[in-house]
Design a protein that fits this description.
homodimer; alpha/beta; 8-stranded mixed beta sheet; 13 helices; ATP-binding (chains A, B)
């Protein structure tokens, strides 16, 4: 007997026929003797519809009331799944965030602070199934809270951790995590196993299978996650810690995957005076404005001459960033603010990179051979990222996927 | 300064533009210095959609989970109205049934047991507006409960009573209570004032402006109700007690209105043995099955001979009633069960009837002149009802409306 959390995304819950298929999967786990809590998303498109209604109601909508409105989508699907499971003869009940309760830190992009599992323990003791709406909790004032878009993944992992689950299965509309976007590279392969850190890097650079927060949370609690398809019966991708990966003894590529992220914009400041505090004077106001600066490149001019500074920010923060920079322009005394949104960040990710030199070099070499200009570079222990012109996205992903030996049926290349 | 409850129905809440119009009405009351609680329905059609989803999920859906699903419609509109009011610079917040709380007796067609007004008092003390989803409460186990279709009217009246409101205004898609259905009689007039009892009789016989339960509740607490249009700025119909009606000194017709109800089915049992306990043996099982038997006519045969019994039941209960009757058929020994759904109940209602003889006689006379056959009759202190073949519905309503002097611009007829 295992204790598991099963989480189903919006496309899996889109309509009664699909909910019936979800219920059949839940039944199979229960019939195998497992204790099951199910976390559900709203029907696909429903949260967008509700968000749109809030925006139409008032441009500056109140997060407290926004949460009341948008949390309703998951309330509906959890009730419907409970009804469907009961119709199959199972003992299922729904529990809203305020009923368990799932304590959340505030509104609209709240963090989960604490989950009371007393109710769940009683449900399991009675041989029951708990159906829990994802994405929602309750504030200390007793108001409905939501966790931010994609928050249902985080709900599932937090719940799994709180109830000491053996694993957390994330059912979605893809059948696992791939070496890269299969729409770009048909030879992309499904990965059997990735580590939390790899998944974090892949997720943060555009492989949107799981919400980044949920992976971080799973890593913190060492909760095994599986990403698998709601629609097909085949094994998915297991996401575990380094240790479990090593124990598995699985042969792996040095590089696990290639990701791309078009949500970065490049900012270039020209004519920066060569004096102390210039760079700090630029990044401090951006940090205060909660802008997440990523790649930074500074030209190194001759002493005493003005230099050029290039960095990237999320595209959504670009207008805001430029406004902040204009405020300090006269004080700092730089010349121009140039922006470019036609850029893409391409990343190679893999824990194998730690013990292998030459990974970055191979990337630069491969891109140079195709005449692709690198605008900025950033690296972490398990990732190398480059910023390139957006028009080269697909070409760069394909050549790197191949260069790192990730193409299916070409094991010999590695 | 007055303390008021404003209730808005589904057509008034159908979409952001209409919610904005609702908010403008609320603002006007607040600007006049009133303390306002607003009760809202789900957007028109939303509750039907949610009920349909539950039915598709499982034929015998669990009332607990049904309530979770269908209560979401009002959750959405209350959040949206709060956002819209805030957008107009007003201090508004939504409070779900479980947040106040509104204690309800059980699931799906729950009664309101108790409303805690502490939160509301604090809202009013702070100059705020409370937006409350109609139709919902919370059970003693902490589960979401709904009050049955049309329950938002009841929510509004119960809330008005609990918070000692000066009045409860029901905004809807008609501009008041009419002497009869204006689609049948163009000369129908809007009534300025009706009594709770008249409204109860009119509502129970098909004038579906207000949920019957809400009128009964208003009568119990002597809460003045006004039915008025969300879409037009004109006075509606005030619903008050006999006493207030008398105090108003208003000249009124003896008959207040003519209603019709097609949701009755006629059941005829033939060949009933003339022995003690026969009639009891028929109605006892129907009562146990919660079938609401209305009009009863028994033919009076010669002693010792079999008789015929005719009565009406709600059309929705007909199949169920026939099944119950078939179970006792052999025991009781009647011959046949005949049913007819092509019947309509026509009622003349008015408190003036109490002190006036000849009201029923005029009805029978008027219908007889048109050759309309009366199948059954029932009367109360302020109502005379007849069952007639359905095809005469419009004709009967028109001639009675005229016969009782209700046609507009024909005061001389009265």
């Amino acid at each position: 007997m295992a204790r598991i959390v099963m989480k189903f995304g919006g496309t899996s819950m889109a309509g009664i026929e699909r909910i019936r298929a979800v219920a059949a999967r839940v039944k199979r786990e229960v019939d195998s003797g497992n204790q099951v809590a199910v976390v559900v998303s709203a029907m696909a498109g429903e949260t967008d519809r509700l968000v749109q209604l809030c925006k139409e109601a008032a441009a500056l909508y109140d997060p407290r009331e926004y949460d009341v409105v948008v949390a309703s989508g998951e309330q509906v699907t959890s009730g419907l799944l409970a009804i469907t499971l009961q119709g199959m003869g199972l003992n299922a009940k729904s529990y809203m965030g305020w009923q368990l309760p799932i304590r959340a830190s505030g509104h609209s992009a709240a963090l989960i602070e604490n989950i009371d599992v007393d109710v769940l323990e009683r449900v399991f003791d009675g041989g029951g199934i708990a159906v829990i709406p994802g994405f929602q909790g309750v504030t200390s004032e007793g108001a409905v809270a939501t966790l931010g878009r994609g928050g249902s993944d985080t709900s599932a992992v937090a719940l799994a951790a709180a109830m000491n689950a053996d694993r957390c299965d994330i059912y979605t509309d893809v059948d696992g995590v791939y070496t890269t976007d299969p729409r770009i590279v048909p030879q992309a392969r499904k990965l059997d196993m990735v580590t939390y850190e790899e998944m974090l890097e892949l997720a943060s650079v555009g492989a949107k299978v799981l919400q980044t927060r949920s992976v971080g949370l799973a890593m913190r609690y060492n909760m095994p996650l599986t990403v698998l398809s709601s629609f097909e019966d085949k094994p998915g991708t297991l996401i575990v810690g380094d240790h479990q990966l090593e124990e598995s003894g699985m042969e792996r590529n040095i590089i696990t995957g290639i990701a791309h992220d078009k949500n970065e914009a490049m900012v270039t400041l020209t004519g920066l005076p060569d004096k102390a505090g210039t760079v700090a004077g630029i990044f401090a106001p951006l940090a205060e404005a909660n802008v997440n600066v990523d790649m930074i490149v500074q030209s190194v001019p001759r002493t005493g001459e003005p230099s050029v500074l290039t960095f990237t920010v999320p595209t959504a923060s670009l207008a805001h960033s430029v406004a902040e920079l204009q405020k300090v322009q006269d004080d700092i005394g730089f010349q121009e603010i140039l922006t470019d949104t036609n850029v893409v960040k391409i990343s190679a990710v893999g824990v194998g990179m730690r013990s292998n030199a030459g990974i970055a070099a191979r990337m630069f070499q491969t891109l140079a051979e195709r005449g692709i200009n690198i605008l900025a570079i950033t690296t972490s222990e398990i990732k190398v990222s480059v910023l390139i012109p957006e028009e080269y996205t697909e070409l760069a992903v394909r050549v790197l996927h191949s260069a790192y030996g990730l193409d299916a049926n070409r094991e010999d290349v590695a």
